[in-house]
Prior knowledge:
By secondary structure, the chain is mainly α. It has helices at 30-55, 59-73, 81-112, 118-136, 139-149, 162-201, 209-223, 226-236.
Amino acid sequence: MALTPNICWGDTPPALAPFFSIGLDKAVDPGQVSVVLEIFLLLTVLSLAPAILIMLTSFTRIVIVLSVLRQAIGTHQMPPNQIIIGLALFLTFFIMTPVWHDINRNALQPYLDKKITQQQALESASQPLRSFMFKQTKEKDLALLVDIADIERPRNVDDVPISVLIPSFIISELKTAFQIGFLLYVPFLIIDMVVASVLLSMGMMMLPPIMISLPFKLMLFVLADGWYLIVGSLVKSFA
Length: 239
């Protein structure tokens, strides 16, 4: 006897998995190839955008200085990391605005209007960024990377390859940021030493000095209008 399955009219048919296929066909129109290359280039730039924003702009110096300032004051969680990173990002946008306007005017808009080729747009876009990095790069750091790369000594800034300029700029930014951070740390360190000496002389060795020095450091920072001085100095350091 044959068994027939019990099928109800209310049952839904089983879901079928979608079928995908990837194929390589010859392009009929050369424009199709250029569109694919443009999409691939756009995806590559988007994937590298965070690294470009962080390492090739003023973001590195600003975020390091603000982090060192927080440690020097002694407020390990105030301001929070989100505030520090957000302030560093907006200051970076403010400082890099002339560079980005130059890139938009001389590279992006002419390329979108089909006045220049893709290669010319990339060269035009790299010039303002290279100029910004050269102004902030120390000659000693640049010479170090040129020597390590074992290339011929550049005759001018245009002969320096971008692969040498980028690490030189990053090293210079780290050095400058730590120099500024050290200068910020000194006055707060003096307050800590004075408070610790006073507590030791009074025999209050069980009282943590940070509990007494923190209000004094905050008072000094507020009375000196610290945010005004630090933000102004950071922005002017890129002039």
